Amino acid sequence: MRQFKQSLKDGEGVTQAIFTAGFGSISRVYGAASRNIGMTPKAYRAGGAGETITYAYRNTALGHMAMAATNKGVCFVQFGEGQEALLGMLKNEFPKAKLSASSAQDAPELDAWMEALDQHISQGSPRPDLPLDMRGTAFQMKVWRFLLSIREGEVLSYGELATKMEQPKAFRAVASACARNRIGVLIPCHRVLRGDGSLGGYRWGLERKLALLDAERERQAGQAAHKPRATVC
Question: Of 198, 196, 229, 195, which Cα lies nearest the Cα of 213?
Answer without folding.
Answer: 198
